[in-house]
Every structure is written in C-alpha cells, then in structure tokens.
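Q: My labmate handed me this sequence with no annotations at all. I'd like to see what the chain might look like in three dimensions before we decide whether it's worth expressing. Could you predict it?
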Amino acid sequence: MCGIAGILYKDTVNKAEVGKALISMLDGCQHRGPDSTGFSLYYESTPGQLRLRFIVGQGAEADKAVAMVKEKLSQYQAKIIEDERIGSSYRVVVEFDGDLQKFAFDMEHAAKLSSIGESLDIIKDVGGAHNVDDIYHVAKFEGTHGIGHVRLATESDVAPEASHPFWATGFADISIVHNGQITNYYKMRRRLEKNGYFFNTDNDSELIAVYLADKLKHGVSLNHALKSSIEDMDGTFSFLVSTKDEIGYAKDRLAAKPMVKYEDDKIIAIASEEVSLNRLFPGKALETTEPAPGTCETWHRSTSA
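A: Here is what I predict for the chain of 305 residues:
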C-alpha cells in the first residue's frame, strides 16, 4: 500500500506554492506509506542547462561519490553552474548540449542518479513528507506542477534509491509515481532492454517511466502512451506521470488501487485518497470524482494567462 499525489496549476504566469501543496497532500495519505517520501518538482528550464541529482550517502562514501561525479562531468566538458550537498544527495546544475542518453548512462556509473532534466528535480529520502522537507526545503519550491509519493516498502529496502518517484534513465524530465504491481514486468523489461534501454533498479515502477519515455521518443503523445500502457501492462495499478509541460494518470481495468481527482479552472489535483485533496482546501466541500476503471487523462500547462 502506497500513496500518490500530483498537482498542476493551469495559470503559469504566477508561480504557485507547489512544494507546500505536495507536502500537505502527501502528509494527508502518509498512513499509506510511512517508510519514505519523494517529490518530482518542475522548474522553469534554461536552454543549454541540465539539473542532476545523485544519491551519494553520507561521510566518506559521499565524498568519494561526489568526486567521481565531478570527474565524469569533466570528461564530458559539462561546466558546473552550481552544486549542493544536502541530506543524502548531491545536486548539480551543468551546461551540456551533447548526447543526453549516453551522458545519462555514463553518469549512472559515477553515482546513483536520481534524476536528470532541463526542469525536473527528484527529491526522495526515508521518512515522512515533513521529515524530507526539513532536510531538503521542499516547501520553498514554487512552480507550476509536480508529483509525489509515500511508500510502504514491500519488495525492496527502505532506502532513498528504492523510493519513488522514478525517472526514465536517458530521458530528461519524465517521472512517475505508482501504486500497485506490474505482473508482466520482466517480459516488458527484457523487450525494452533489447532496444537499448537501461534500468537502474529492479522496481517495476521504473518500467513505467521507461515504457512511456520510449513512446514519447517515437512521437506518441502522452495521452496515447497512457492508453497503450493500460493495454500492455498486466496487474493492478494507478499511476501518475509528469513531463516538463504535462501531467497525467492511468488506471487499470480492475481499479483495485484508489484514485480521486479534483479540477477547477485553476488546478487539477489527483491523489490516492480524498483526504489529500481536502488538505488543499481546508473546510471546503469539494466536488471530487473517481476516475473510471481502465481510463487515463492528461493536462497540459498553459503558457499564457
């Protein structure tokens, strides 16, 4: 049992308090996953720059990992614009305009890569939403959209690298959060690996991110990629996906994993439980809906008022 949440503010002229909103939503469903919490946050992109975040640990282990990252960056002539050691992670912004997929695969060998993106920054660690915020200051993030996850560990360790969100290695700005299980995981993974894709974990949730990234790479819209996922993936699942411009959901036909959404002219918010949506509007009665079994939907952020 895990909890997922996502929010997109439709008016992008004024940045919204996305970090605070996601913390409140995830805290509302923290009982579904007390082991770890993670956030995919989307910044405004800067041409020619990439954001990278690595899970490096603490102490001497972290020192070694950071040194390896810097050495690998220098090999690619990726100029460091800014960097930060915080919690168990190392965040760095670089100038880079080369082969992203090759770059990402190589950086995976320097340290445990949490995310790469022109906009995307994935922050995840053990503990609850407020515990992670205390370390990484998620509440200060202002932007247009993001997704988040609270995890109950069932098949892997309680560790930052095993936590959600997951990104698609080799592709910028695609991330997912997932509640459920993909039962044909190994069959689908082998097929994607034969096509040259790389997996950083054995978590079936990472498969969703790589699967969707492959569809987008071949010119399929996010909405059609989600429709295909419902056909191609076996199991029980509800998941959210985000890119630098869109957010969407998919739900399997059995609908065993809960999902509730709220939409008005300003926002779309989706979560595992209604209590997470109520945290956004204290004391207000919301007209929420539950997505039907076997459905998907996407929303695109506006670029004008």
